[in-house]
Each structure stands twice: as C-alpha cells, then as structure tokens.
C-alpha cells in the first residue's frame, strides 16, 4: 500500500517570510535587479501561504494537491538555501570589512578601492553575484508555475473562509459508553481501582468543590477509552450516581454543541435551544443537587477559558459528582483536573497476548496452540504494549487460519496493513494532526532515528537548531530554550517516552510512533537502513529527493555502503548514529572517500556528524560547507582542525568531546562569531587555546578554557551567555587579579558547574598571595551547583566559599591544595550534599571551623549533607 506522506509547510513559510524581511539581507550590496526580484518573492509566497491551510487539509483525499505540495516543499527548501547563501555572503563581507588589510597581500586592489566598496569588486564577489542572479531566476520561474497550478487546483484562501472541507483521513470514529462484553479487560485492574478510589463512591465529598475532574492520560491506542468504559459501566458506579452521560468530544471543543449533547444525554430530550446561556441554565436545573457522572472522551482543548465556560453548570451538582476526561495531552489534563492524573503506560506482553489471541481466534492465549504460538508471540512484540494495535492485528488475523499466513503478517510492516483493517494508523495520525505546525516539522525530523534508538534530548535540540526549525519567541529568546519547550510539549503528548535505563536526558519513541514519524516525513528524511529501499538505485532515487539522511554507524563503513550518495547534492543532514560514542575503546572506521570525496559535494549541509569514527584529519574543503551549523567530531582521532574551519561563519555547534589526540584549535577560532556550543571536554592533549574567544558573544557551552601563552582569563568577560559546566585550566599563569576580575564570573548566571585548576607542579614560580587574590576575584554566580578546586597554591580559601547565598551548591571537591592551612566554613550551605576534601596536607585538624557553627549548635551544620570524604590528609 502506498501511503501519502502529509506535508505541512505553514511554519516553513513563516520562517521564509521572516528571512526575506530581514535587514541583514538587504545590507548586502547586490545588483539592483536582484533586489527587485527578491521583493516579488514576498508577495508570491504570501499568495501561496494563503492557500496552505486548504491544501494541507485536502492533501490526503486529493493526490494532485499532495503532488503540488511536494513541489512547493522542494521549492521552499531551495529558496531557503538561497536565502541562507545570501546571508552567509553578507556575513563574510562584513567580516572582511572588519579585518585590516594583510601586509602580505600582493594585490593593490584593496588599496585603490574605498573600504566601503572593496569587497564588492573582488573576483569572488563578482562571481557570486553572477551565480546568485541565475539561481534567483530559476526560483522565480518555479514560483510563478506553482501559482498558476494553485489556481487550477481551486484552492481556497484563508481569508475567504478557510478550508472547504475537513479532512477525514485522520478522524476518529465516535465512541460509546458500551463495553465489549466478550473482549475481556486486561491489565488495567489497578488503574481502574485507583480511579474508583478517587471517586469516593458511596460517600460525600469533603472538598469545597461540587465536582471533581479525573483525567486519564496516555498515547493513542493505549486503552484510555476502554478503561473509561469499564468504570462507566461498573455496577458500584451505576448505584452511586443519579445521572450519567458519555460524550465523545474529539476534534472540536464547541461549548454550545457539547452542552447540548450533555443536556440531551441526561434529559433524554432533544435540545431545541441554540443559545448557550439558555442551554446551560436548563442543564443546571436538571443536574441541580444531583450526583452526576460525566465522561468526556478524547479531549484536545488546551484553552482554559473554553473549559471554564463549559463547566459552569456542573457547579450545581451534588457533592461527589465526577467528570472523567480522556486525553493524550498532559497540558489538557492540567487545565481541567482537580485530582492527580491517571497516566496509562503500555501493557505487558502477557496482557497484549491475551488481547491478540482473543480477537484473532477467541482464545485466552496461544499455549494450547503450538502452531501459532511462536508467530503470535512475535506479533505481540510488534504491538509494543498498545492494546489498540493488538486488537487491530487480531481483527486482521481473524480471517487467517493458517500459521503461514500469520507469518506473512509478521514479516510485513504493521504500517502496511490494508486500510480498513488498521485502526492504529488513524489513531496515531490524529495525534499528529492536532500538533501545531512548528511541532509537526520537529517530530517528522525524528524519523531519522531507527526503532528502539535512544536519543539524547540536548543533542536533538542542537540538531533542530542547526536545521533552522526553531525561532526565538517573546518568552524564550534563546533558540535552545525554545527547543526544550517544544521537546517537552512533544513528550507531554506521548510522542516521546523516557528511556528505561533511567538516564535523565535519554528518550525513545514507541515503535508505532516511529512508524508515524516515517510516514509523515515522507521522502524528506532518508534512512540508509530502510529495508524498503532494496537496491542502490532505489536508495539513490530516494536520496536525490531527500534533505536529511541518517545511518547506523558500523565498525567498518566502506565505500560500497555509500554508493547511493553518488550525485546527491541537496542533503542538509549527514548523521551517523549513535551521535555519541557507546564505548570509548571501540573504534569505528570510515572510508576516506566519504571525508575527501562525498562530503565536499554536499554543499548545503547544516548538520554533519563523524562522531566516533577513527578519523585522523579533515580536508581543507570542509571550509566550503558554508551552510554548516552543526559539526560533531567527538571521539575521533583528529590532532588538529584545518584553519578553513574558521570560515564556517554560520557554525553554531562544534563538538570535540573526547578527541584524545587533539592538540590545538585553529588560530582564528574567534571568527566563528555565531558559535553557541564548543565542547572540548576530554581533550587532555589540548595544552593551549587561541586568543579571540571573547568575540564569540553567543557562546553558551564552553566546557573548558586552557590559559597560558595564548588565551587570557579576561577573555571570559564577553561570554555573558555561558551555561552549564566550565573548567578553567592553567590558573597558575594568571599573574594579577585584575584579569580575573575582568572575567566577571559573577555575572554568568547560567553557569552551574565550575572547575578551577592550577598546575600540579608547586615550584618556586608559584605565588600564593597572587593565587589567593585570583581565586577571590573569580567569585562565580550564586546559581552554582558544583565546584571543584584543584592544585590551588594559596594558604586560605576565598571568602565567598561557604557563603550561604550559594544556596544551590550541592557538590564541592577541594583537592591537592597543599599549602592551605585551614578549611573554609561550609556548614551554612543549605543544599550541600557531597563534600570531598583531598590532599590538603597543611590542615592538621578538622573542627568547628569547617562547620562554621560553634558548639553546641554544630548539629545544625550541613543540613543536607549525604557524603563526607577525606582523602590523602596529613596523619599528624
């Protein structure tokens, strides 16, 4: 079955129009004719944007509309690439203008042409203007062609009343309160009892509220409606309520329509009134002082005002009245609930097996049917705990009496089940349909991850940022903050689930949700592991249309594996997985042809990872990837980066974590003025860093700085956006406290972890008094959570260490500060959980001074301390 991928371009168009309106674009000196054509793009895009809503609504039922959207999507990507090229050239010319002429430059052209114009007449600039003009002509022609097709498709403008019909492909069938008496009820007994307990059956409510709201939350197909039906029809429930009503809400949360349906269900009379006030008054009269049970099934509304209006008549009910709400969205539950959510997780294999066996053959399980047992239990695994999947597959298998036919179903994809037999597809697709446009794009990108793949939340947000999917908002200026908020929203809607490993930042997608992501992403995302692409030619055809690609990193990735990439030009993502290294000692080898031949032809790459490969060097051609925002070389064997990396002016993320052989960074690293994340943790051979880091004002992540012949500590002054962890190595090279004061660590509110490291060599060049002044001047923000001080040479610790204003400081380690004769007073730190003191041999005794509290009140010290460790202390 060929399934049409859904295309949603609204968020994409918003970003394109913002870029076209950007002042930076028009600060670039280009021939006048180019500007006039760019101006026409805005009006043309606005005309196309006006019909997007109608096109997106009708693409499932109208193949011609879907094909038109595919062409429009291709054009949008190409247009975005061109605008990015213009912005990058503007940035390059501005940087050239800011740099003084090089004395070694043999050309006299720069001396003869005024500084304001010189960069516009270089051969490179002239060639750029010529090439860009040709590209603009091509895109203009395609825009005009799509505008003509728009008219032929009779698409309706938003301002003329929106889409002419609601798409039916994703609509959910109405639910009823009746239970299937013969299907059984598996695995939800505890959930049912928990809700019955919350309903306080047979007793009056002690709350001031006249009614309680109990949300049942979970992903599509997990059994929320079935659980609500079981409660609704429970005999004890029937005897405890005067009135009952079951309302399937689904898409539209229309206060009048829902109130009418509640009135009709409770009164058994048609509602002849079409005025909300009259209907609500009538409903209130009916339920006044009566204990009622109302089930609102499949609610999507996140508008508290709508819920507030709908619920006003409920206040008249008798104490103990209950509203049960089923929803997939935690946000919906949060605006309605009055008691904690009942969050449904997937069922275990035993319960799923019972559901599948019952719907397929009417059996309890497969134990008495060995011919079906192995295949049946394998199909159970495919259901991944979703009762709806088991029921849907059971319905399909009901007509298949031969075990071999069951094997055929097992070997096919659940996604390929014939329409009409597969309720899982529309059930999950409805969740996607209800996403805001900008979240649809983010979710579809996750189709790059294979099934059961654990991805890192922070890594995914960096990739979203690199791809240009995130836009700053009024409440969240930083793109990363926007990304984390979007991630949490997808998590709350059950698109993601936490890893069972317990790692705080690791997540994965349910198999069927992963299928959904692949379905909606269509041809834009390509996975080299996709078995549907049976041969090289099919893979190449798919890659020629794709913009994002991923593949599982193998121990030996030879040239044959990448044959399908031949001729590919427009990829934005080249992502081997996992993006982090699973075992630091396990080498992965990549053919040189990928690095030297394939990557240079991918001129539109935004995200490139070579993480974990046994790569020794990058070619100079890496500097030609001018669109690159994300470069991950973590865990490689690279000793140094080519200087051309500093020409990647758009680069936002440079990950060099655990590059054990790395000895230096490029001299002009400071030219990367858009860099936001520089991770060089685990690079022990990196003994110095170049000057100019202070120019990278956008930098948020800087895992460490190495002070010495090049970089000075005062270069930290301009890095006001630093977050997370920072290690300052080589503090013994700081010869005066002024530079330390200029670093202004106190202002860096986002720093949560700080490591201060001096040399482990306590020779005669060390000056304890200067080091005392330096550490005093490096007072960090009081938001600090973790502090480590190593090899400090002063005789006492700074006065700020132990100040109770550091209320979040939970971990302190003081090691090899051998000249210190006393310990800081740390007992007043309210959150300190772990304290390690090692190698401070100048301290002879430990007493009340460490606690900071005199006896007999010493027991009040360290209110949160869990671990106290002393190591390598003088034994005297």
Question: What does this 3D model show about the protein?
Answer:
One of its GO terms (molecular function) is ADP binding. Keywords: ATP-binding, Coiled coil, Leucine-rich repeat, Nucleotide-binding, Plant defense, Repeat, Signal. By secondary structure, this protein is α/β, with parallel strands linked by helices. Among the domains are: 151 residues; 155 residues, 3-Layer(aba) Sandwich (Rossmann fold); 77 residues, Helicase, Ruva Protein, domain 3, CATH 1.10.8; 90 residues, Arc Repressor Mutant, subunit A (Orthogonal Bundle). The chain has an eight-stranded parallel sheet, with helices on one face. Strand 7 and strand 8 form a beta hairpin. The longest helix has 36 residues. About 4% of the residues have low confidence.
């Amino acid at each position: 079955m060929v399934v049409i991928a859904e295309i949603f371009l609204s968020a994409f168009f918003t970003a394109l129009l913002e870029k076209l309106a950007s002042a930076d674009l028009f600060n670039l000196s280009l021939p006048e004719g180019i500007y006039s054509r760019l101006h026409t793009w805005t009006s043309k895009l606005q005309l196309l944007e006006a019909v997007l809503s109608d096109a997106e609504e009708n693409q499932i039922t109208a193949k011609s509309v879907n094909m038109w959207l595919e062409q429009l999507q291709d054009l949008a990507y190409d247009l975005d690439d061109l605008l990015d090229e213009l912005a990058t050239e503007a940035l390059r010319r501005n940087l050239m203008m800011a740099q003084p002429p090089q004395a070694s430059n043999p050309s006299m052209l720069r001396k003869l042409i005024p500084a304001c114009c010189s960069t516009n007449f270089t051969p490179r600039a002239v060639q750029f203007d010529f090439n860009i003009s040709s590209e603009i002509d091509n895109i203009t022609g395609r825009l005009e062609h799509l505008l003509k097709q728009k008219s032929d498709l009779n698409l309706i403008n938003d301002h003329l009343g929106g889409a002419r019909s609601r798409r039916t492909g994703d609509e959910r069938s109405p639910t009823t309160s009746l239970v299937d008496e013969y299907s059984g009820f598996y695995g939800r007994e505890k959930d049912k009892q928990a809700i019955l307990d919350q309903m306080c059956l047979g007793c009056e409510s002690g709350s001031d509220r006249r009614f309680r709201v109990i949300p049942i939350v979970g992903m599509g197909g997990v059994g929320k409606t079935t659980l609500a039906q079981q409660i609704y029809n429970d005999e004890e429930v029937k005897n405890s309520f005067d009135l009952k009503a079951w309302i399937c809400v689904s898409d539209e949360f229309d206060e009048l329509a829902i109130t009418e349906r509640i009135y009709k269900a409770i009164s058994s009379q048609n509602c002849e009134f079409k005025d909300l006030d009259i209907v609500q008054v009538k409903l209130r009269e009916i339920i006044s002082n009566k204990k009622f049970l109302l089930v609102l099934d499949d609610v999507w509304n996140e508008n508290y005002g709508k819920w507030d209006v709908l619920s006003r008549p409920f206040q008249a009910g008798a104490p103990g009245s209950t509203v049960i709400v089923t929803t997939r969205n935690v946000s919906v539950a949060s605006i309605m609930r009055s008691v904690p959510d009942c969050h449904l997780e997937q069922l275990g294999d035993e319960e799923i097996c019972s559901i599948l066996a019952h719907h397929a053959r009417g059996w309890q399980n497969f134990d008495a049917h060995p011919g079906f047992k192995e295949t049946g239990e394998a199909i159970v695994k495919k259901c991944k705990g979703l009762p709806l999947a088991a029921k849907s597959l059971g319905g399909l298998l009901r007509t298949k009496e031969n075990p071999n036919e069951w094997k055929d179903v097992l070997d096919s994809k659940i996604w390929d089940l014939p329409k009409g037999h597969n309720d899982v597809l529309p059930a999950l697709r409805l969740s996607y349909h209800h996403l805001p446009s900008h979240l649809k794009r983010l979710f579809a990108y996750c189709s790059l991850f294979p099934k059961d793949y654990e991805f890192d939340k922070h890594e995914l947000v960096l990739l979203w940022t690199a791809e240009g999917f995130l836009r700053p908002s009024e409440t969240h200026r930083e793109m990363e903050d926007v990304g984390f908020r979007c991630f949490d929203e997808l998590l709350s809607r059950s698109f993601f689930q936490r890893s069972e490993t317990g790692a705080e930042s690791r997540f994965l997608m349910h198999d069927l949700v992963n299928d959904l992501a692949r379905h909606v992403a269509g041809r834009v995302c390509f996975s080299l592991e996709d078995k549907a692409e049976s041969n090289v030619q099919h893979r190449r055809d798919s890659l020629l249309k794709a913009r994002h690609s991923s593949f599982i990193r193998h121990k030996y990735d030879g040239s044959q594996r990448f044959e399908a990439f031949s001729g590919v030009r427009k990829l934005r993502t080249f992502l081997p997985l996992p993006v982090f290294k699973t075992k630091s000692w396990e080498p992965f080898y990549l053919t040189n042809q990928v690095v030297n031949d394939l990557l240079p032809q991918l001129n539109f790459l935004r995200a490139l990872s070579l993480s974990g490969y046994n790569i020794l060097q990058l070619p100079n051609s890496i500097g030609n990837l001018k669109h690159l925002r994300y470069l991950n070389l973590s865990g490689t064997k690279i000793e140094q980066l080519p200087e051309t990396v500093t020409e990647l002016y758009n680069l936002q993320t440079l990950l060099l974590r655990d590059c054990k052989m790395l000895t230096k960074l490029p001299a002009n690293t400071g030219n990367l003025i858009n860099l936001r994340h520089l991770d060089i943790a685990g690079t022990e051979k990196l003994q110095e860093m170049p000057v100019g880091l202070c120019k990278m004002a956008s930098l948020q992540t800087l895992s460490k700085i190495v002070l010495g012949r090049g970089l000075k500590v005062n270069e930290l002054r301009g890095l006001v956006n630093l977050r997370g962890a920072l290690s300052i190595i080589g503090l013994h090279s700081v010869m005066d406290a002024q530079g330390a004061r200029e670093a202004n660590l106190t202002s860096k509110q986002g720093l949560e972890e700080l490591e201060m490291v001096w040399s482990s060599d306590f020779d005669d060049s060390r000056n304890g008094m200067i080091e005392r002044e330096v550490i005093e001047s490096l007072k960090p923000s009081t938001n600090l959570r973790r502090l480590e001080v190593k090899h400090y040479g002063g005789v006492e610790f700074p006065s700020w260490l132990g100040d109770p204003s550091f209320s979040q400081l939970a971990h302190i380690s003081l090691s090899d500060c051998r000249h210190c004769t006393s310990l800081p007073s740390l007992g007043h730190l309210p959150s300190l959980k772990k304290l390690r003191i090692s190698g401070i041999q100048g301290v002879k005794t430990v007493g009340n001074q460490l606690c900071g509290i005199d006896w007999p009140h010493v027991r009040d010290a360290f209110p949160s301390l869990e671990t106290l460790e002393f190591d390598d202390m003088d034994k005297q």
